[in-house]
Amino acid sequence: MNAAAPIFDLAFWVTGGAILALLVLSALFSGSETALTAASRGKLRARADKGDKGAERALAITEDNETLIGSVLLGNNLVNILATSLATALFTRLLGDSGVALATLVMTLLVLIFAEVLPKTYAITNAEVAASRVAPVVTVIIRIFSPAVAAVRALVRLILRLVGVRADPDSNVLAVREEIAGALYLGHSEGVVEKEDRDRILGALDLGERAVEEIMRHRSQIEMIDAGQKPVAILDQCLKSPHTRLPVYQDDPDNIIGIVHSKDLLRAMHKLTLGKGGRASALRSFDIKSVLMKPYFVPETTTLDDQMRQFLRIRTHFALVVDEYGSLQGLITLEDILEEIVGEITDEFDTDAEHSLRRGEDGQYVVEGAMTIRDLNRATDWSLPDDSANTIAGLVIHEAQMIPKVNQVFNFHGFRFEVLARKENRITRLKIGKL
Prior knowledge:
By secondary structure, the chain is of the alpha+beta class. It is 52% helix and 13% strand. Helix 11 (304-314) links the parallel strand 5 (297-299) and strand 6. Helix 4 packs across helix 6 (127-162).
């Protein structure tokens, strides 16, 4: 080195300026990565719908996260390494060989504070705003680095394949449903989201994953009308029933010939007896088949989401559920599906709906055996498994591998189950409590 040469010459200032510029670029890359990955796509979509072009670009570039992250990381590493190299050369010129250690210390502090912590803190605090602002710049960066990123991606996949790992570039780490569910559970645990709101949204999301057979009213609980009864008996049954629609069968309960609506029945009988030219004796000749609606049958494997759409499309609220052999298994209504979203819907005729779950003084619950596991989990915030059975009674029978007797007690899944009542081979009431 020429001793007479000035230390603080033009090269010194150019190198120092280059280091500062590279630190600014590093901060841009770090902040962009955090902003674009942390920004809510829903909020970005809302901003884009209001005319924010930056948010629209942010949505476009986050469609391919692998390319986005690869380009930003490549640029960030390039500027960090280049800035560190220039700083090492600068400090070596000033202090000789001891300048290497000082350059490492100074650049570590500068990169950590001004190129990592500071920009990332701002970006995560104002994710959507920051993502909208940096999106145009990042779009250009992706175009510049896309060939190099593509080569790196191919090399990475090759290395992973050699060690037995298959990388699927089109797969998402989390499905949308799981992201929403996770956010709801987190919000509920932090007290931001109410339990009822969480259950409603999760219930709506689950409609596409659940089948009709899981929530249908079983055939043993269906109230039916025998078409062979006398008209007065049919009228009496309809008036006493809490339901407005009832299946009508001929000879055999499996032979459903139609559905009667109480309004249609009363309207027809009123016309016969009190209408113009009507007389009370005409009621004896009334034929219920004249007011029946055609029965609507659905497979038990139909998803709740599809079934709700069908109800709305054909403008009916009532369907009979059959298995693969065409045998009657139960019935389902639009109200049953809506209850999976909003919870139990009761009116003045649902006399025993409110008694399906009662909490005793000992903290344990008295539960009707026909109550579904999902409804119990929703009401108590438990997590009993529902993959092997739909109802509480079914779960006990499945785990016990027998038809339990009254007063028998079972412990499984961290709960105590006591059989309180049984009718024939059906468990009708149980007491459940946590162990």
